[in-house]
Amino acid sequence: MPLSKIQAESMNLADTYAFTGTVSGASQMVKISTTTASNAANVSFTGLDTTSTYSMYRIVMDNVTAQSDNAALFYARFGIGSTPTYNSSSNYNTVFVNGFSNVAGLQQQGAGGAAQMWLAANASSGYYMPGDTFEFLSGTMDLFRMGDANHPPQTNWFLGYPISGNVQSTAFGTCTFVESSEIVNGTAIQLYMSTGNINGTFTLY
User: Fold this and answer.
1) How much is the mean pLDDT over the chain?
2) What are phi and psi of 179, to 5 degrees?
3) pTM as predicted
């Protein structure tokens, strides 16, 4: 039956209704770009600015692998300035939690004053980034305070990946610059492996 105005306190969802007009107040992610990496040294996104058009960014990662199997950790760096220079000084504070399906409990990983962000994989557990045919990493990374001249950039991530055949792993964490470094105006981010090259699809929203 046609319905022009809802006046009752309930409606029969088994019926069929025709709605016209527009919906205000709804929002959705805006796809900005997609990068497909194949044996690449790194994947970079530049020109990021949360002070104008967007309040945050999200990178969706799919089928990410290391070119070198069972050898690499997953790293990232912020780029600073309008023509970004990727900061490799000991200025990153990272904390993330790693879990493995065959290991009881969660493992907290931390790196204070490091030269890069540490996103996933754990050398001490013997589990590195996936690289075999049936191994891959997928997940999201959110970016805040990009292009901000008064505050340092920050990122939070949630990743999942099967490794070593039958072991499922997850990693979720956060990173920003150490406060004493007073580094601001982060306009880019670069993803890479600790050794070897990177593969996968990376979409920026």
Assistant:
1) 87
2) -60, -40
3) 0.84
